[in-house]
Design goal:
By secondary structure, this protein is of the alpha+beta class. It has 3 domains: 90 residues, no CATH class; 187 residues, no CATH class; 94 residues, OB fold (Dihydrolipoamide Acetyltransferase, E2P) (Beta Barrel). The protein is built from 11 helices and 13 strands. Strand 10 and strand 11 form a beta hairpin.
């Protein structure tokens, strides 16, 4: 039953273009027919009569899937391959697949329900932030770029494959009538290659105990969010996992990643990933000015006491980093102004040294601080 289910899932991924591509690559020749509903492919084998396969001319016929199934069954018999292998080979012709397998004890038959969405969200973030880097490579992103959505939408979660909790994410990298640069791989392929390139650099960083190259290669490899996502797939080192790739056979991958073999991401890898993420998130102090609303005030003692620590958080929209939360430590007069702004719903303007460590933004050495009247902002 599981085999039948996997075949059905693979069948759903096979397009008419995939099957035509496979036939053309295997020596089948499209024959001319006047009937616009069918396509006939011939294959001559030695001196035998030509073999024929009949395909629907379009995918909008009601029995399209059944016709494709029949054609693949015939192909498996002609080529002497198992049905599941035949389906997998055709489905993988024009698609790249990321294969992620959690290394759970053999006795485990399930995973906690709260953990499942964490695995899936982490895999999603890995692809999303790789897409961001293909649009505008940065060491870190506060949030995904909106322009990355069309690229991410071309990826899909497939069935969990046989074994201990395996996830497959696939994307089509070759489609009919595409007019892209023949010498430039499609964006989806570049997203996958970036992930694989990062894994290769991660492996080198673990072997040499030196993450320098991994940190400096964010423009072609992992950004901070991708590091976070890889670490989170295995719940921050709690669960080792295998990461492998199946390249589309119709388009060769770039030379620097084509020999990639599956990697295991365990505690050592997660430790490196967390360090690299922290380094890539650092923004050195620089003079800046911000305007935003007060979202948090904290002072344990009397704000007027000299030894009191008065903390304020502003929610701002930064021209470069987007929506961020900036923390500040203030003196008593400015803290009272922050309380007033929070009470009246007014904004605060501040000027000083803006910096980021890890996921936290702060402003130090503040030289200007005032309430901004909405009418004049």
């Amino acid at each position: 039953m599981n085999a039948d289910r996997n075949i059905d899932q693979l069948l759903d991924r096979i397009s008419l273009y995939d099957l035509r591509s496979y036939l053309s690559r295997s020596g089948w020749i499209s024959a001319f027919v006047e009937n616009k509903k069918w396509q006939i492919y011939d294959l001559k084998k030695d001196s035998e009569d030509a073999l024929q396969l009949i395909l629907p001319a379009a995918e909008n016929f009601s029995d399209f899937r059944e016709r494709i199934r029949q054609a693949v069954v015939s192909l498996s018999q002609i080529e002497g391959k198992t049905l599941s292998n035949m389906f997998a080979e055709i489905a993988g012709l024009n698609s790249d697949s990321l294969l992620i397998r959690l290394q759970l004890p053999s006795s485990a038959s399930s995973i906690p329900i709260d953990d499942a969405p964490r695995h899936v969200k982490a895999i999603r973030n890995l692809v999303v932030y790789s897409a961001c880097s293909e649009i505008d490579a940065k060491p870190h992103y506060e949030n995904p770029l909106s322009s990355a959505t069309p690229l991410f939408d071309k990826f899909e979660f497939c069935h969990t494959f046989k074994g201990s909790f395996g996830f497959e994410v696939a994307t089509t990298v070759a489609k009919p009538l595409e007019t892209g640069n023949l010498f430039e791989p499609p964006k989806q392929r570049k997203i996958v290659e970036r992930i694989v390139r990062g894994l290769i650099l991660l492996d080198e960083a673990v072997k040499t105990s030196d993450p320098t190259t991994l940190i400096s290669s964010y423009d072609t490899g992992l950004n901070a969010r991708m590091c976070d996502a890889l670490a989170e797939i295995g719940l921050l080192g709690q669960i080792p996992f295998n990461f492998d790739i199946q390249w589309a056979t119709s388009i060769s991958p770039s030379d620097d990643v084509k020999n990639f073999r599956g990697r295991v991401i365990g505690e050592a890898e997660v430790s490196i990933l967390q360090h690299v993420a922290e380094q890539l998130k650092i923004v050195q102090p620089r003079a800046d000015e911000i305007t935003g609303i007060v979202i948090n005030l904290h002072c344990v003692n009397n704000p007027n006491d000299n030894d009191s620590r008065r903390n304020v958080a502003l929610k701002i929209f930064h021209r470069e980093y987007g929506p961020i939360e900036v923390k500040m430590t203030l003196g008593p007069d400015w803290y009272l102004q922050a309380i007033d702004a929070h009470t009246t719903g007014k904004q605060i303007y501040a000027q000083g040294q803006l910096q980021r460590n890890g996921n936290s933004w702060s402003m130090e050495a503040i030289t200007r601080f005032r309430i901004v009247d909405k009418a004049s902002s």
